[in-house]
């Protein structure tokens, strides 16, 4: 706002008139209002994605809105009404909040350590193969100073469903500049933050953490606008996207959170259950048996054989030392690709974990990584038995790009 002119000097009071004379009329003050609040808000039309979000998530009253006033300031989560959680969502939150954070030595003693190491190798391949090239072209940089003389940091990552921070080292190796992590389980978020704080200063990147249900709420409820002003280069969702498939509304909210702050040319990488494997195994269950299958490492139990809806196709999942009969949902791939295209996301990679291994086990970079990540030892032997190997292939790895 232009600076207001200084008030004119006050004139001396005139000589009082004689008692018989009427008092002079006061001169009107010039119109000179002063603004008490900054002029920063404007009315902007809602985007189509926002219209859909408000129609499906915030009630019928918002359907009458054509415009809304956008505030330049961040509204804290407490100022907005909380979304009602489904019973399944509550079970998922309680489960992951109750799981303790264990040290490296205890993780090595896990019954499924071979599977854990293999899954981490798969994620490292996915991140290196598809995220690294995009990060190298990012506009988000530290100016080249770098950390510890290792060169500049570059790139911005959004980790939806970050859990306890199991991928922090992977992003550190990618030498990213900024990392924003969210998860529905608040205790897991606190543990992820603690794990990030334990990284050495020479490998630590900027990081922000928040507890948020990214399937029912926009990111703006947990992340300040300043953190969203610069778009992300990569969005990652590892072993968690299937929880959104409880309903189409949750899937659309999730996709809106993925794509709204992802730059054009950015990538969306993730790992999800393999619907083809799950439904094939379901079909193989005898008619007079319980609708479950698996082995000593994992088990999956469906509630019914039919119907098989695109959303809300529920089953219970157990994985030794990791997941205790938590409700999950089938992700039907082709319908997911179709709805993702509405948000500008298009697949560039999709393979079962076994096929990812076949593709990259002899790769010049990823073959040595198998040994460094303890998937195999120097003799080529592995701690993965046949039961863990079977459990690994109930997942697929995917990558999408935003056009």
From TrEMBL:
EC numbers for this chain: 2.1.1.56
One cellular component (GO) term of this entry: nucleus
Localization terms from the record: Nucleus
User: Molecular function terms in GO for this entry?
Assistant: mRNA 5'-cap (guanine-N7-)-methyltransferase activity; RNA binding
Kindly state which keywords UniProt assigns to this record, in alphabetical order: Methyltransferase, mRNA capping, mRNA processing, Nucleus, RNA-binding, S-adenosyl-L-methionine, Transferase
Reactions the enzyme catalyzes: a 5'-end (5'-triphosphoguanosine)-ribonucleoside in mRNA + S-adenosyl-L-methionine = a 5'-end (N(7)-methyl 5'-triphosphoguanosine)-ribonucleoside in mRNA + S-adenosyl-L-homocysteine
Q: Where is the MRNA cap 0 methyltransferase domain?
A: 110-403
Binding-site residues for S-adenosyl-L-methionine, renumbered to this chain: 123, 161, 183, 213, 238, 243
Q: What is the main EC category here?
A: transferase
- Which InterPro entries does this UniProt record tie to the protein? mRNA_G-N7_MeTrfase_dom, mRNA_G-N7_MeTrfase_euk, RG7MT1, SAM-dependent_MTases_sf
Sequence intervals crossing the membrane = none
Q: What is this protein called?
A: mRNA cap guanine-N(7) methyltransferase
């Amino acid at each position: 706002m232009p600076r207001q002119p200084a008030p004119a000097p006050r004139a001396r009071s005139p000589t009082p008139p004689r008692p018989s004379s009427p008092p002079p009329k006061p001169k009107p003050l010039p119109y000179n209002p002063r603004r008490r609040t900054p002029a920063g808000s404007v009315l902007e039309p809602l985007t189509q994605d926002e219209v859909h979000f408000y129609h499906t998530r915030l009630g019928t009253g918002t359907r009458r809105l054509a415009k809304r006033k956008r505030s330049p300031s961040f509204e804290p989560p407490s100022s907005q009404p909380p979304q009602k959680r489904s019973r399944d969502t509550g079970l998922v939150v309680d489960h992951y909040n109750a799981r303790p954070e264990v040290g490296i030595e205890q993780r090595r003693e896990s019954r499924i350590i071979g599977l854990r190491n293999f899954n981490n190798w798969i994620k490292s391949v996915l991140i290196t193969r598809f995220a690294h090239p995009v990060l190298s072209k990012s506009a988000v940089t530290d100016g080249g100073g770098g950390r510890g003389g290792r060169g500049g940091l570059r790139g911005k990552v959004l980790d939806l469903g970050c859990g306890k921070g199991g991928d922090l080292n992977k992003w550190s190796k990618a030498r990213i500049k900024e990392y924003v992590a969210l998860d529905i389980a608040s205790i897991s978020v606190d543990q992820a933050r603690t794990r990030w704080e334990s990284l050495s200063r020479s490998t630590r990147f900027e990081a922000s953490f928040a507890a948020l249900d990214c399937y029912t709420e926009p990111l703006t409820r947990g992340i300040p606008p300043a953190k969203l002003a610069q778009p992300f280069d990569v969005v990652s969702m590892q072993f968690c996207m299937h929880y959104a498939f409880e309903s189409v509304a949750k899937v659309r909210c999730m996709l809106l959170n993925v794509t709204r702050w992802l730059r054009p040319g950015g990538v969306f990488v993730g790992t999800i259950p393999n619907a083809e494997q799950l439904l094939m195994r379901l079909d193989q269950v005898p008619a007079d048996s319980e609708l479950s299958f698996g082995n000593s490492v994992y088990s999956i139990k469906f509630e019914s054989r039919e119907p098989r809806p695109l959303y809300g196709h529920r089953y219970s999942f157990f994985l030794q030392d990791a997941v205790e009969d938590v409700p999950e949902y089938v992700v039907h791939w082709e319908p997911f690709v179709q709805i993702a295209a509405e948000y500008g996301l298009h697949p560039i990679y999709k393979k079962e974990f076994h096929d990812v291994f076949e593709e990259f086990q002899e790769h010049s970079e990823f073959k040595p990584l198998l040994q460094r990540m303890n998937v195999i030892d120097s003799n080529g032997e592995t701690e993965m038995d046949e039961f863990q190997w079977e459990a690994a292939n109930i997942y697929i790895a995917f990558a999408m790009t935003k056009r």
